[in-house]
């Protein structure tokens, strides 16, 4: 009871901040993606692929969310894009406040695409809007092909779902087309991509998805 | 600030309940393990293996934590052990209250081993004691071999660490011995097991670990 009341206050404050983040992003014509997903599902890898494919044509920045580490931030920095490490400390998700503070270190006027990599978690990021234009959820076959039905909310509230690492489906006894079907059952209008970093065509589809939002 | 104060109240209430759970478990001579770990890292599979190996000699019960689903609970039920599905609703971790309520549906006098499978998450379960005797953390190579250093707290506060799915290390470009070394750096006294469900000897070591607590 106690907890629920406070959560309402926290959620309200977060929603308001997310709204002001969104206004700032729109004013600066920045396209912002919140990349959520399971621990180690391939979020950083997919963002790296997109950066490599798009950085000659678009000005890209990244906010790399993590509890304490800065390993993902260093991976992005190596690609020569503006990167801010956003450490949550003990929290298992990014929130709008942390994104607001991170954006203070990014020249938004000089940015076309902002990737925000969330903390590996399929539960709490659902509740915390950040001000993003598009929410992406990434799972991999390796989590097991029951992962989708175990975490319905994140698939219901995302704009794109990616089932990654399809190259190792057999080794982990998972059926990616069952996962796709489960996602479509939960959210009939969501596009679903099956990807593997070893399959160039699948990665190209992910990049085309991003480009479909840019002129 | 607001959040921190309340969290203190929540944590205090949880610690008190965990303590009373622990007393109840000790009084009934139940050995309880809190199995934490990454999403899809193999928690259910490892508990299933242990149940199969131990159920003829010990009376086993399971609390299967999940946000909404009951898939893991059905897997345990199939093995003929007392199973309670503990759904957290929106929470990303089990807490002592939910375990207390779940234990009301278990005849503790008739139980030697209680497995508590936590929600797939490497962050929040750290803060929530349940009353368990032993805390186990499971990661798999598939999350990437930087996962340990990204989540130091759970390795510092666990009694056993398992690096699972070592059979697919190459396919996901992960080095399990780096992961073991990282864990031992964070927590020099913790035993670390490298396991694969395809390697019987590695599974036997996990079962021997459990038996070392039983007479
Ligand atoms: N086989 C295979 N492995 C992959 C693929 N994509 C990523 N990986 C591996 O999966 C591991 C995790 O990849 P990351 O991109 O770091 O995943 P992440 O979701 O950013 O991880 P966190 O930020 O730690 O939650 C790494 O060891 C990668 O090499 C893929 O398509 N196939
Ligand atoms: N290759 C390989 N796959 C494994 C191993 N252990 C489990 N798996 C696969 O990994 C997936 C997840 O296994 P689970 O035991 O359900 O994992 P979990 O940690 O209980 O998952 P959640 O409860 O959903 O977080 C399944 O598809 C298993 O078949 C292993 O040692 N090697
Ligand atoms: Mg990452
Ligand atoms: Mg499980
Ligand atoms: Zn959270
Ligand atoms: Zn939590």
Automatic annotation (TrEMBL), chains A, B:
Entry's Gene Ontology molecular function annotations: GTP binding; GTPase activity; nickel cation binding; zinc ion binding
Domain AAA+ ATPase: 29-167
GO annotation terms (biological process): protein maturation
Pfam family, one: cobW
UniProt entry keywords in alphabetical sequence: GTP-binding, Hydrolase, Metal-binding, Nickel, Nucleotide-binding, Zinc
SMART domains according to UniProt: AAA
Entries under InterPro entries matching the protein: AAA+_ATPase, CobW/HypB/UreG_nucleotide-bd, Hyd_mat_HypB, P-loop_NTPase
NCBIfam families per the UniProt record, alphabetical: hypB
Family assignment from sequence similarity: Belongs to the SIMIBI class G3E GTPase family. HypB/HupM subfamily.
The name this protein goes by in its record: Hydrogenase nickel incorporation protein HypB
Organism: Methanococcoides methylutens
